[in-house]
Amino acid sequence: MKIKPFIYFASAAAGVLALFLGPGWLGSELGLALGFVLLLFGLYGISRGIPSRDANKDETDVL
Asked: What is the pLDDT of residues 22-49, one digit of tens each?
């Protein structure tokens, strides 16, 4: 199952909001923990969609 990129962006944005608004709304520890989890999940998903520089390199090109 492939998750759509929009979900990752929305998760990262929700994580940022939870980091800033969570301590007053959800409580200090829960707001920060939820914010970090959502932000890191979103950033991880976004970064997996970026191709590697070495992806197109030939395997025979060895020193």
From this structure: 777 777 788 888 889 988 888 888 888 7
For the chain, the straight-line distance linking the first and the last C-alpha, in angstroms and rounded, comes to 38
Phi, psi of 59 (to 5 degrees): -75, -15
| Integer Cα distance of 60 and 63 in angstroms | 9
Q: Is the dihedral of CA 7, 8, 13, 19 positive or negative?
A: positive
The conformational region for residue 43 under phi > 0 = left, psi -120 to 50 = alpha, else beta, is alpha
Q: Residues with Cβ < 8 Å from 44, sequence gap 6 or more? A: 8
Supply φ then ψ for residue 26, to 5 degrees.
-105, -10
